Amino acid sequence: MSEDPFRQFGAWFEEAGRTEPNDPNAMTVATVSEGGRPAARILLLKSWDERGYVFYGNLGSRKAQEMAANPNVALLFHWKSLQRQIRIEGQVAPVDSTQADEYFATRPRISQLGAWASEQSRPLASRAMFEERLREMEARFAGKAVPRPDFWSGWRLKPDYFEFWQGIDFRLHDRLTYKLTSQGGWETGRLYP
User: Fold this and answer.
1) In the chain, where are the structural domains located?
2) CA distances from residue 121 to 75, 76, 116, 124, 186 in whole angstroms, order as listed
3) DSSP state of 88
4) Domain 5-108+150-191: what homologous superfamily?
5) What is the pLDDT of residues 78-120, one digit of tens each?
6) What is the DSSP letter of 4?
7) Given 18, 37, 127, 171, which residue is catalytic?
8) For 117-154, how does the pLDDT look when each residue is reduced to its tens digit (9 = 90+)?
């Protein structure tokens, strides 16, 4: 294991990219409401570096509202075929509009239109209603580029804690932790399985 959690993440993430059959960048994103109620959902990691882990979504969604009220967020990557998981905890902050625009421009057109059509996390009377909104967006942007909606952007989680979990037979797992120190370095440790 590396002394640097980002280097360790990179090694495991690269291996998952070679071996996981679907979405090795899928992660659970856990948030907490103002009232203390936790919520978790699967999102896709879109980029990462030593500044943090970036993901995107609708700014009107439940997750966005919870992150605005409480920026403490946890990520969990689970690669069952490798018997590995990585927990990452820290605080989120919005990405800048240029980065959000650049990423949005790389999305498939239908995903761009879907971002405009979806009132994410709000009640929906029927699937047909959403499909009608999607057709409206197709007509609205026919023959032209689809701009990023102002209600859609991204967040960067700046980690202060990592846990790397390696599954071992008979539940004798190996768990290595990294905690950010006040001096900006990483203190490593181990946890009982």
Assistant:
1) 5-108+150-191
2) 20, 21, 14, 9, 37
3) E
4) Electron Transport, Fmn-binding Protein; Chain A (2.30.110.10)
5) 999 999 999 999 999 999 999 999 999 999 999 999 999 999 8
6) S
7) 171
8) 999 889 999 999 999 999 999 999 999 999 999 999 99
Question: What letter represents residue 111's amino acid?
Answer: S
Tally the C-alpha atoms within 13 A of residue 108's C-alpha that lie toward its C-beta: 3
Q: Which two tokens mark 84? A: 């590995």
Place of tokens 């768990």: 175
DSSP H helical ranges for the chain: 5-19, 62-69, 97-106, 109-117, 127-140
How many other C-beta atoms are found inside a 10 Å radius of the C-beta of residue 88? Answer: 25
Say how many Å lie between the first and final Cα of the chain, rounded: 17
Q: 52-58 and 72-79 as β-strands: parallel, antiparallel, unpaired?
A: unpaired
135 is catalytic: no
How many angstroms separate the Cα of 172 from the Cα of each of 142, 166, 167, 169? Answer: 57, 9, 7, 6
Locate 23 and state its tokens: 């979405």
